[in-house]
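Protocol step 4 of 6: structure prediction from sequence.
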Amino acid sequence: MSVRTVDINADLGESFGNWRMGNDEELIPLITSANVACGFHASDPVTMLRTVRSAHEHGVAIGAHPGLPDLLGFGRRTMSISGEELYAAFVYQIGALQGVLRANGLTLHHIKPHGVLPAMLRDSEELGAAAADALVDLGRPLVYFPAPTDRGAFLLAARDRGLRVAGEIYPDLSYTSDARVVVQRQKRATDLDAASAQVKLWLETGRVLTEDGSEITLEAESVCVHGDGPNAPDVARAVRRTIEECGGVVGPVQAGDLAHASADG
């Protein structure tokens, strides 16, 4: 591959009150983009504020991580909601983070839907259009979304509205042969060798390994490490090391850069 910049993003700020999720303090210095929970599936105002300040201190690009209103299920259970409800949920959550950012002299870099939302947005034209409309009304932020980014209701709606979408891969989750991510109801520890091998395969070929042993092509610009994983910091270190060993450098996705990041053979 030719030298290129690869983003490492992580879902952060997912604690709630006295309940702690993840190891944000150790993870933040290892990543380049932070997806900050906004209060529906996790987080609270103090957690959000602290997470934003810590990410900024370490030079990490800050994005919103909106989820379904499902604290009990951590936003990983499909819910029956209308387009109007989803639009309002996006405006409410992302607007909250924008307020925290503004109070600290910062601006929103991106948004990334949480949990089961990407699948719902891909499958429902009503929800996909509602989410895209909300992002247009909130200032057209960059969108992080599971690769592939060339199919699904939301992605078509985003393209129609001129939204910039950056694909991401998941070394700490598995894929089906039709390129769907297998969401874990409760995160398990990630095999570091397997995660490194998945990232190396993607960097060198543009493909990832699926559960049945086949390979699928995924065009992406970012590698996501889920912050609620038991060994998330170790996964981030392994990913960062693999990128650098393959000749890449780590850095956030540039919102104005429309160049594709497919691997060079």
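Step 5 (inspection) to follow. The longest strand covers residues 5-12.
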